[in-house]
Design goal:
Two copies of one chain form a homodimer.
Chain A lengths: L11 E4 L8 E4 L5 E2 L4 E10 L2 E7 L8 E2 L2 E3 L6 H13 L3 E12 L4 E10 L10 E7 L12 H12 L17
Parallel strand pairs in A: 4-9
Antiparallel strand pairs in A: 1-2, 2-3, 4-5, 4-7, 5-6, 5-10, 8-9
Chain lengths: 178, 178
């Protein structure tokens, strides 16, 4: 059953397990099914007195460009815990999570980004190992030409548009159907 | 590097890859890193003239008990598409997604459940292969003693409590800190 054309690791081949309706990675030796599912990225638009926290990336991809604190949700975390952890790891920032600002499903790369609105507990931030520098930007001084990813633009726009809203129905990606 | 005490498949061992800060499953032969991340379950509270769609499970776990249409998000889907697909697969229901009702992070099992409020496009529903039967229940006739999972109780409660709200800030699990 193995397929020499693909580069799946080890003795896995792609086939439809009994009772399923789509192809999975199945071990030809032991029958183990390696399910692959979309991954969750958690992040924050965190502010202090109207200024927004951004991090300049020290790692690929998009090294040197500015991004929001964000990263993959890890096993055993809630989405809020993951967002708080990423802000600490990347910017040594301490946060209070407010509410969910956006859920960006990026189906092409099987990623679901969950971005929270958050308040910084203090303006003391400093770069973690994955950041070259971190800074608080007034909305009109955000380095818009040096933003790392499209979803950072979306989140900053959605943040500004919902700034006066006490209750947010999470925004979706611009191209995403409801 | 292999650990005879664990039952990880094949030649993987658990160690911290260079530049990472937590243990991952790494292939001892080729260095392939098998990242494990929480999985997303997408589901719906779907209604027709105030009645709510439930499905009686034809499969383990909790076979014979009632649940909301829900299941794992698949690669290449948006969360809304996944919720619509699950409602079709389990209840042959056609939906219009309204908005995100709840995000239940269940860290113990590394699951994030995203439950949407939705409208049925018609009351014609019928069991798919994973359901013994499907039905529309008025709120006061929901089979509360035969519900499959705690999160189904949460979602039904959150749905009722937000019924009059045009804009919902997604609810979280009862034990979950903001």
């Amino acid at each position: 059953m193995s397929d020499p054309k693909n580069d799946d690791p080890l003795n896995f081949s792609r086939r439809v397990p009994e009772g399923d309706n789509r192809q999975r990675l199945v071990c030809d030796d032991c029958g183990f099914i390696q399910y692959e599912n979309p991954r969750i990225v958690v992040g924050v638009v965190a502010s202090w007195e109207g200024q927004i926290l951004l991090c300049r990336r020290a790692i690929a991809p998009r090294k040197g460009y500015w991004t929001l604190p964000a990263g993959y949700l890890e096993l055993g975390e809630t989405t809020e815990q993951g967002a708080v952890r990423e802000a600490w790891e990347e910017a040594r920032a301490e946060l209070a999570i407010d509410q969910l600002l956006a859920v960006y499903s990026i189906a092409r790369i099987s990623q679901v980004q969950m971005i929270y609105r958050a308040w910084l507990r203090s303006p003391r931030v400093q770069p973690g190992p994955e950041s070259l520098e971190v800074a608080l930007f007034p909305p009109d001084r955000i380095p818009v030409d040096d933003i790392a990813f499209p979803s950072v633009h979306w989140a900053l726009k959605d943040y500004q548009e919902t700034l006066a809203q006490a209750v947010i129905s999470p925004r979706t990606a611009p191209f995403q159907q409801g």
